[in-house]
Amino acid sequence: MDVSKNREEQAMPDIGKTGAKIVEGARRCFERYGIEKTTVEDIARASGVSRPTVYKFFGGKMEIVDYIGFAELDKIQDLVRARIQRQRNFADTTTEAIVASVQVASGNPYIRRFVEDLEVSAQSQLPTSPYQEQARHRWESVMHRAQASGELAADLDPADVVNWLSRNQVMLLRVLDQFGGDEAKLRHMVRRFVVEPLLANRTPTSS
Fold first, then answer.
1. How many CB atoms lie within 10 A of CB 107?
2. Do residue 179 and residue 87 come from a single domain?
């Protein structure tokens, strides 16, 4: 994760005060009825706007869900940054970033949609998707430092590495329950099978 996130690059689209009212109204509906049972009419009523106004700002309910999801990714970024600030090398930083983001995201219904909805999950892995663009921004400075320090294997393209890491985060979210809440086991699997193959020095660690 990019510890020194560029806020201008990461900024959400400006939807103005009315758009923000719609998003907040949608949040209240999702929390009360659940995402699936909420309708655009519910959102319009909760936001104090007309149904056509909702469609003026968003293509539909799921576009609002996606908007909230990307906003939630920013919040997770802040939480992950706090957890990894003591890590000094690429392997430790990457391992802790993945473990932390998977744990935090697992309880977030908006982000879990990227995993549970197969169509959305497939689209999110396309190189041109907003999810991948955000992932590239999050990891950019980490990749640059790893290249400069010689920690990242020389034959790897940072863009390919970011795509690999984001795919693994999605996979880990899908199977997180299999770890039974064992953080040490999750960390070992991430370090051994996801991170160490990326290193210039591939000597496995005992962590």
1. 8
2. yes
